[in-house]
Amino acid sequence: MNLASAADYVAFDSDRYTRQEVLSDDEQAVLSNHLRRSDWPYLQSIMPGLINPLIDLAAYSGVSERSAAPSVAVILWQVSKIGSPYWVWSETQWLELLNTPSGSRPYLAAVAYHLGGFHTPQRITKFRQSSIYASFIFGHTVFDYEHARLSKVLKSLGYEARHLEQFLSSVLGALMLENGDPRLETFTEALLLKGQAHRSEGVARAVGKVSHGLASLGILEKPLRMRSYVSWRTKSIEGIDPDWVKWCRRWRDTSTLRPRTRESGYSFILRTGIWLAREQPCVSSPVDWSLSTCAAFIAAVDRMTVGEWALASGRDTKLHRHGLPIAPNSKGAFL
């Protein structure tokens, strides 16, 4: 899915169908025959108003006819049994169908959502994997696009792919369903706060992580504060120029990186302040750095040993390989 098609996303239009509130005798007779309920070409010729919305919704959701056929048959059997079209069913009647182990629940939920006015699939007894329901209701294409888009920006903020797999799909699906629109640009701070409310600590924190991605995309003005994230760990500023400390704190308080990554980065730049005070005492802010300052810093990091430039608050920590050269990946992280 390209960017233009994401911007041009249009919700399924159920209003384009003429929906009669009662079944004709002929329709009732046809639907009572279980063989006819699976014969789509025949049904389209006899009762297009009843079958075409179901076929169109399968295509909209990205579901093959083969996968949708059993679920359509289940809906038509229920139409025959109840004696009225599916778009006039009550929420109780929809829940009765959705709670029975027949057909594809996500596709049936999409029909209930768009053609039956049932907009709370979360009430299904065995509701699982909100990402699957969101994919069927809003279409697999737009869900996959927005998921990839958010995943990309979160990776750029320091989240590992393995970590994202643990929470992103389910949380994104839940937010899309609660929002009633899958597009990230329609997500608001109020939606995310609602998504955190009355949820487990893990889900609430995951929503907070999503907010960091949305802030980085410019959709939110700022990320949500992580629930129960009490405060920054106290770090010593002993031996560091106060102006450098001020710049470090400004970076920490405005960065959109996830808290743990921000905490680590904050330590790095504070420790750089110790090196500056010792080796470059005239340099106290980023604007003071020259080409020679950068070259000297890179050379110093290349020679750096484990525990060097340690903050006073961390000097009592027992470090593995203390005094030995730091690993290449540590040098990369520092730089």
**What's the domain count?**
3
Look at the structure and give the mean pLDDT.
Answer: 86
Order of helices and strands: HHHHHHHHHHHHHHHHH
Taking all Cα atoms into account, the compactness measure Rg is: 29 Å
Number of strands: 0
Unreliable runs: 1-5, 227-231
Kindly report how far apart the N and C termini lie.
Answer: 36 Å
Instruction: Count helical runs.
Output: 17
Shape: rod-shaped
Q: Which structural class fits the helix and strand makeup?
A: mainly alpha
Fraction of helical residues: 55-70%
Proportion of β residues?
A: under 5%
How can the largest sheet be summarized? none
Structural write-up:
The chain is mainly alpha-helical. The protein has 3 domains: 123 residues, no CATH class; 77 residues; 93 residues, no CATH class. The protein contains 17 helices and no strands. Helix 3 crosses helix 4, helix 8 packs across helix 11 and helix 14 runs antiparallel to helix 15. The N terminus is likely disordered.
